[in-house]
Amino acid sequence: LPLTALRSFEVAGRLQSFTLAAGELFISQAAVSRQVRELEALVGQPLFTRGHRSVTLTPAGEALLSVLTDAFDTIGDRLDALRDQEKAVTLGISVEPSFAACWLVPNLPAFQKDNPDIDISIDADSRLVEFRRHEASLAIRHSATATSWPRVESRHLCDVVLTPALSPELLAQGPPIETPADLTAYDFLHEENRDLWHQWFRKAGASLRPERGLIYADGGLVRQAAARGQGVALVDTLFARDDIAAGLLVRPFETTLPYGSYWLVARSFAGLSPAARRFADWLTDTLDENIKSAALRD
Hints:
By secondary structure, the chain is α/β, with parallel strands linked by helices. The protein is built from 10 helices and 10 strands.
């Protein structure tokens, strides 16, 4: 079997790019192209349609890729299992930065207390991983709509519900807030863009669109900025629950804005290692308890 050529083809087909394949395999783009051409000569037909700086799989290429990806993944999983028998288990988790900072890090000691044999390695990154070797076994991702991630499975974790909030110190220094329009007297804080505030105002019955204010990369930073008195923010009700209960944040209105959900993502839940399965079960059970507790408190 031309294993080197098959591996180069699998990576190039999965990533739809000879350049990205070269980066993953730590070889040159020319080497990837040469190995793919050798494979095409062996099977007697093209596996890629080559365009200007792009490649797409032919029907024959798609058929071969579906077999090879599963085969290489199975081999990699078996090697990982054999390797992990000889040393302590380190479980890689790729997590959205907001979820990592606001929920996972505060709750993780409870998991580690009950599972001292599992070391957790957290990669706070919003990019979806490919779940190749040396990458994460599980990912936690946010989606504003339905999930559409290729070659993975996903499970719903929790819905995201946003609510206006600001620090009590900032509220005491500014004018009273009685109507949604009164919020315009304060600086607005935004996550990624300024559209979420427009959506909240529309739901609250006010056609306002804030065009100014600091923009942060993720919701965790927005929540911290609001607690420090930098402005009024839309915060996740689950993540901000403790801050609101402790009086670090104040909710001027009960109107909330649904904003998608968090999902647990894996290449295959049936193929998870025992350590990954234990973490997934703990994550869903603990989140469910938190959500039920928040509902009873409200």
